[in-house]
Write the structure tokens for this entry.
Amino acid sequence: MRELLRRRLEHAGYIVIDTHDGGQVMELAVGLLPSVIILDVNLPHVSGWNVMAQLKADPTTEQIPVILYTASPDRQRAIQLGAAGFISKPATTDAVIDAVRACLPNRAAQILTDAETNLETVSSAEKEDS
Amino acid sequence: MSYILLVEDNQDNADMIIHILTSAHYTVKHFSRGLPAAQEARRQRPQLILMDFNLPDVDGRTLSMVLVQQLGGAKSPPIIACTARVGSAEAKLAEQFGCSAFLRKPFSPEDLLTLVQRFVQPDDR
């Protein structure tokens, strides 16, 4: 699913940096300042909830919209932590792309060949085996 | 401060590049990892970026695309991709990832300086 989602997002014109290591999300977010983060809650090594809290506690990353894409039913907790979107698995890749677009209302994605101008960066952290 | 941002994880290669460029009166800031380098590029815009594609923390190709986007698209500082990978496809790929030029390792000091001088003059310091 992760690879399919990555390909679909890239096809939709987004630059995608993905990781299955929850411990790397903060480092990637601070280093790359993505436009959107798609975050699974059930990550190896560290809870996605903790990652979400770290992202919102850091002034460098607090403004980055985070879409929780997860089998967890705890939508209320996601909202309380400041999630910009919540998608329950299983969901279609179209639903995820729609959520990404909803987070970037003023910036239409461009195809990959337009990478010099308007591409958005999307970070995706999801379980490798999901 | 005007400077060239060097992103290279091999210290020997980095030392050589820094020596060549500083001898030609360029100022160089070196990072062995891509993510801190990206932070520095946003904090203080470089005149030119020399980017190794094989970095330990993030793919150099993707990082190049991100930096081109974040540093102004067509107005971003030029990026020279440095890689030991061979083949004309790699040069084309570097261009597709937003790089302005491609430097294949190993290269001579003359190769490096000729290419760098296409984009930045030492007098620009």
